[in-house]
Amino acid sequence: MSTLAIDKAGPTRKVKLRSMSRDRTWALRWSYFFLVLFAIFFLIPPIYMLITSLKSSAEISAATNPWWVFHPTLSNYVELLTSNQFLRFFWNSSMISIVVVIVTMLISIPAAFALARMKFWGSATLATGVFLTYLIPDSLLFIPLFKMLAVVQDITGITLLNRWYVLVFIYPTLTVPFCTWIMIGYFASIPKELDEAALIDGASWLQTLTRIFIPVALPGLIAATIFAFTVSWAQFLYPLVFTTSIDQLVLPVGITTTLIKGDVFNWGQIMTGALLGAAPPLVIYAFLMDYYIAGLTAGATKG
Amino acid sequence: MADVVVEQGRLSRAASPRKRASLRNAMGRKSTVAFFLTLPLILLIALLVLYPAFYSVYLATLNKAMTKFVGLSNFTFLFKRETFWMVVRQSCIFAITAVVFKALIGFIVAHFVHNIPGKKQRKWRGMLLVPWVIPPAMSTLAWLWLFDPSYSAFNYTLSFFGIGPIPWLGDTFWARFSVILVNVWYGAPFFLIMYLAALKSVPDQLYEAAAIDGANWWQKIWHITLPMMRNIIAITTLFSLIVTFANFDIVRILTSGGPLDRTHLFATWAFQVGIQSSDIPLGACVSLFMVPILAVAAVFILRDVNKRGNEA
User: Fold this and answer.
1) Cβ separation of B211 and A282 shorter than 8 Å?
2) What does the alpha-carbon distance between residue B307 and residue B254 come to, in Å, rounded to a whole number?
3) Nearest-neighbour CA in chain A from B80: distance (Å)
4) Closest CA to A222 of A171, A301, A296, A279
5) CB B138 to CB A282 under 8 A?
6) What is the pLDDT of residue A229?
7) Counting Cβ atoms within 10 Å, is residue B31 exposed (0-12), middle (13-18) or buried (19+)?
8) Rounded Cα–Cα distance for residues B69 and B71 (Å)
9) Comparing C-alpha atoms, which of A42, A296, A138, A60 is closest to residue B139?
């Protein structure tokens, strides 16, 4: 960093310029050097997952060099992808995440539209309230929610605990506030002339929303969708508390509870499972990185 | 939008009383439409966020079997337990240390990435955000394996430097260190992205002017970068403080609070007390202790976000 300093000693303009460009090259070199170090730190766990997932149990317990695969094998992948239990976890996770994304969008888009464009009594308070709700963490609500589900189950006779579908109702509490918040930002940035024109042409509020707001704010919509999906895919606490039977578990809980049998850790399979579980968000991220980052920064920059 | 309606109102007022009535209908329709559009949101927040939050306060005043109102005796019981004070201290140490390191690493790495020209910057940014993208439960499993007592890849590597096997998760100090390390690893990329976005919004002319005035790199950071990024730094730090303070996944998977409860946070201890030992009132009580700190952070965030909204 210190190489960024400008050489004040340079007596003439010419010398000073040259030293500045030399400083820049050095700053760049140092930047690359430290970036490589940080990249190693940031990428060690995923890379180690990959390395271990390619090893057989025999090679892992032989305690050879952990950073190298001597006899690469896909047996862990084959075993997991043919195991009904693992596929069940994957299916549960996918179902829940997709339904939650749809529910989130159905709730937050209309609400964001109303909050961004239709000034009504209490709309500003509600917008602030939505943002505050986003700051309430899951670890504050899991105990009362657990008890609530038990009580509702007793009263109505509908089985709620230990059923994966109950998560579809719970997860929107995590996704809807943030999605509404960033959609308010995106909707508010649409020029008023657009919907005024639509209104003059006789469009109803609903038509204004579906024909103008949704198409124009599509990037924001994609960012919100990615957020909702990754949050529901990664959620760990609620499924850990609300579901226990093996056929009701989602991927993160399933891997942490079933692949550890007693004190025996089958690390090859655990790492394979973790990698496969991390794959959907990683693939989405790889293809839609700009939307992902837009969604990430929107919370603070679109006030 | 409201402007249009008002203008239409002015026009119709000039026209005829019948039209005024239809205008009133339209206004009525507008608020009705708005009500129905926000109704699902209001219901969701009321039923599944606000109600449980207050229900939690009620639960905290019951006895273990949840049959009798016991007032504040759950709280007084906690105050007398040494484990509780340990959890308070550990949560604070954990949250503050982790957030400080996340912010520092994020700030430093953001500068390095910012130095990289054009297209390569995108590639580096993409690579460095990976920890944030992987579900924390999954990546923590990889860390657990890296910290494994007998097969630790870290200890294998360190043994070449003559550093003896480190009990990553077995010893109080190292267990706390490891839990914080994993949290920093997971959260630093978020800071990196936020700070990078903020750095890009600082006009280059400011730095050029400073360079002409003979400012060194430290003066540039202190007098230009930090003031310009002040708001983003505040929001990101406070937000991260909330999330880190309420963290559950990492500690649960890595240590489950061990060794001897030395890494428990409010969330993991509440889980152990409330769900695993099925003392729901006491668990609710433990998690309620997060509220004051979360509330303070939330108030400051709200202030900063509103300020930002007014500036823009």
Assistant:
1) no
2) 39
3) 22
4) A296
5) no
6) 92
7) middle
8) 6
9) A42
- HSE of A148, CA atoms in CB hemisphere, 13 A: 20
Selection from B269, B97, B90 nearest residue B182 by Cα = B97
| C-alpha angle A263-A268-A270 in degrees, rounded to nearest 5 | 65
What's the pLDDT at B105? 92
Residues of B in contact with A277 (CB under 8 A): 135, 137-138
Looking from the CA of B224 toward its CB, the CA atoms found within 13 Å total 21
Tokens of A13: 């303009």
Query: Quick check: A255 contacting B, CB < 8 Å?
Result: yes
Contact of A210 with chain B, judged by CB distance below 8 Å, is answered with no
C-alpha span between A178 and A189 (Å, rounded): 17
Give A230's contacts in chain B (Cβ within 8 Å): 133, 135
Q: Is A293 on the interface with B (CB under 8 A)?
A: yes
pLDDT in tens, A11-58: 444 445 556 677 778 878 888 888 898 889 999 999 999 988 888 877
Q: B126, A195: Cβ pair inside 8 Å?
A: no
Using a CB–CB cutoff of 8 Å, tell me whether A300 touches chain B: yes
Tell me, yes or no, if A137 comes closer than 8 A to chain B by beta carbon: yes
Residue A67 has pLDDT above 70, yes or no: yes
pLDDT at residue B311 in the model: 46
**DSSP code per residue over B149-181:** TTT-HHHHHHHTTTPPPP-TTTSHHHHHHHHHH
Residue-wise pLDDT tens digits, A184-215: 888 888 888 888 888 888 888 788 888 888 88
Whether the CB-CB separation of B109 and B115 falls below 8 Å is answered with: no
pTM: predicted TM-score of the whole model, two decimal places: 0.84
**Residue B126 neighbours by CB distance under 10 Å:** 16
Q: CB neighbours (10 Å) of residue B183?
A: 27
Cβ contact A41:A233 at 8 Å: no
For B268-294, what is each residue's pLDDT tens digit? 999 988 888 888 888 888 888 888 888
- Inter-chain residue contact B49 with A45, CB threshold 8 Å: no
- By C-alpha distance, the chain B residue nearest A190 is B1
Amino acid identity at A188: A
Tokens of B97: 């240390």
Are residues A228 and A174 in contact, defined by beta-carbon separation less than 8 angstroms? Answer: no
At B62 the three-state DSSP class reads strand
The pLDDT of residue B19 is 54
Assigned token pair, A225: 């969708």
- The rounded distance, in Å, linking the Cα atoms of A96 and A165 is 7
Question: Is there a contact between A289 and B126 if contact means CB atoms under 8 Å apart?
Answer: yes
Tell me the shortest Cα–Cα distance from B45 to chain A, in angstroms.
7
CB contacts of A192 in chain B (<8 Å) are 1, 3
**Contacting A residues, span 35-54, partner chain B, CB-CB under 8 Å:** 35, 38-39, 41-46, 48-49, 52
Pick the closest to residue B243 from B188, B204, B164, B304 (CA basis): B188
